Amino acid sequence: MCRFLAYLGEPIFLSDLVCAPRHSLIHQSMHADEGKTATNGDGFGLGWYGEREEPGLYREIRPAWSDENLRSLCAQVRSRLFFAHVRASTGTSTTRANCHPFSHGRQLFMHNGQVGDYLRIKRRIEALIPDSLYAHRQGTGDTEALFLAALADGLAEAPAPALSRTLGRVLGMMREAGIRAPLRFAAAHSDGETLTCFRWSSDAHPPTLYWREGCGGVMVVSEPVDERGAGWQPIPPNHVLVARRGEAVTLRPFAVTASSFSEEKEAKRLFEFGGALGPVRA
User: Fold this and answer.
1) I want to staple 243 with a disulfide (CB 3.0 to 4.6 A). Which of 14, 195, 252, 280 is the partner?
2) What's the confidence (pLDDT) of residue 271?
3) Burial tier of 123 (Cβ tally within 10 Å: 0-12, 13-18, 19+)
4) Which residues share a beta bridge with 84?
5) Which superkingdom heads the taxonomic lineage of this protein's source (predicted)?
């Protein structure tokens, strides 16, 4: 599985977290300790908020450890809110369009996990994406599909309820298709002001996710970038973390209930032909 980190706080150089620490994300691209695979060499990506409304993106298919441009960019870019991700493909092709993070307007999203037997229900998941958003679909992976489907469910307005609905629909599809493999989901989302991070799974093995507050900011990581005793706390399974500048970090339960795919097809039909109905609501 992939490894990622997210930061919100006082502006820092990306290299302070992505490159410099002993167990930095670049090091994790070669030697991850807690992932399903030790090597995460199927591309990488950065997303950061700067002077403009929309985040900047840099994504590449080369392994993070072998891209000199990554180190140079991280040494020059300072940001108050940024994402970084190293990818281990779960079956889809290694292309730039499949590298995380993904953006739409001010929304930024990245993911580590799996949709069990994704290719069996790929077309059904994509049916959750309305035409207005499907035009932005560039890759073939599950993360981008979940992101666009969640945007249709109201991700920009209320991230936790939107992703609960989206994951519930996907889980329902998996069950109706007889898929026994789990749906596992660790993800980070931001609109440039709030950082929302999720750790959830349909089984008892959610992907790892830790957080730490200090040195002017909040960090969320797949695995600690330095000593594990240095204040890192695991996000509890089936919880969501919400961080905003100047406010205390909150952790609260995050629940997903499987919904019927046949019912969702009708909801999607009403969405697409209802004009001003707005985002699909469960």
Assistant:
1) 195
2) 54
3) exposed
4) 5, 46
5) Bacteria
Residues 6+ apart with CB under 8 A from 92: 98, 118, 139, 140, 141, 142
Sorted by where each begins, the domain ranges of the chain are 3-273
What is the pLDDT, as a whole number, of residue 44?
A: 87
SS3 9: strand
Which tokens hold the place of 28?
Answer: 């994790």
16: Cβ contacts below 8 Å, ≥ 6 apart: none
pLDDT computed for residue 277 by the predictor: 41
Is 239 in contact with 254 (CB distance < 8 Å)? yes
The fourth-level CATH superfamily of domain 3-273 is Aminohydrolase, N-terminal nucleophile (Ntn) domain (3.60.20.10)
Interior angle at CA 45, CA 88 and CA 58, nearest 5: 150
Quote the radius of gyration of the chain (alpha carbons, Å): 18
Helices and strands per DSSP (H, E), number in the chain? 8, 13
User: What are φ and ψ of residue 199, in 5° steps?
Assistant: -135, 110
pLDDT along the chain (282 residues), means of 10: 90 92 75 59 86 94 82 95 82 76 97 93 96 92 95 97 97 96 97 98 96 92 81 96 95 94 54 46 39
DSSP 129: S
End-to-end Cα spacing for the chain: 30
Q: Is-contact 120 35, C-beta < 8 A?
A: no
Burial 150-189 (b: 16+ CB within 10 A, else e): bbbbbbbeebbebbbbbbbbbbbbbbeeebeebbbbbbbb
